[in-house]
Amino acid sequence: KTGRRMERSTLRGYSDYVRLHLTAPEVGIGDKLIAQLTRRHVNELRDRLLLNGRSEHLTRRASSVLKLILDHAIDNGQLFTNAATGVRVIKSSRIEHKAPVPSKEAIRALIEAADEDFKPHLIVSALGGLRASELRGLRWQDVDFDKGFLHIRQRADAYNQMGKPKSRAGFRDIPAGPMVLNALRRWKLRCPKSELGLVFPAPQGGILQHTRTQDRFRKLQEKVEVTMRWHDLRHFAVSLWIEQGFSIKEIMTFAGHSSIQMTMERYGHLFPSPDHQKAMAMVEAKLLG
Questions:
Q1: Whose CA is closest to 97, among 89, 88, 106?
Q2: In this structure, are 144 and 209 located in the same domain?
Q3: Is 85 within a domain?
Q4: What are 179-223's pLDDT values in tens digits?
Q5: Cα separation of 219 and 214, whole Å?
Q6: Which residue in 29, 75, 138, 225 has the fewest CB atoms around it within 10 Å?
């Protein structure tokens, strides 16, 4: 049989979509054989997911997983056509999936209250915008102290398996300012030895479990009385890039997004609205004097 290789964490994610959505009682299609599925069945599944509280983003992802499953069945001669092909989740007029951005005061309080070993984790995440898996996979050879860049070339998944970024967009070079570089220079002097050359290894030098980072982060939040997710540090970094006037294309690249649409869906509300009237007044002034 044919198939595709995937990381254990990716397979687990797909399995969760099947269990929680595609075959969920009352909304799923668990009572249908794949050979029985028609375009109408898939459209009705989409509608039920939306009507029962699933977001557009989640419904779109569930539809993609179903399409992948049916493609696999076609590759193995179990189907001739894919009933999920062309089924769309039309985006509503409201902006969905806005990224929650912590305040500068909250980030500053966390960094100031963190111990010297945890402070570099926060600084690199909040100013570099790395995903947690990318932070755990970052190597010293990926830190360019001379040119001021962090090169994202690998990531550690939920099972502590090291691999390449999940998409081509994940391979990227992120600019690093003096605060990030100086924090890393100081950290390098006392960083645990790692055969993998990791910047943020486990105490014994292996791959750091993200649950350990989350535990330290939760205790630090309690100390300074703020609440956020670790991933919100990434949102904070992107908000700084927007505030600094980076172009949408640059932000998409630095964040490792595969499309400008993805960037705008998450962060479009953070971009300043252009003053069209002022711009037209300037055009008229240049034209008419």
A1: 89
A2: yes
A3: no
A4: 999 999 999 999 999 999 999 999 999 999 999 999 999 999 999
A5: 9
A6: 225
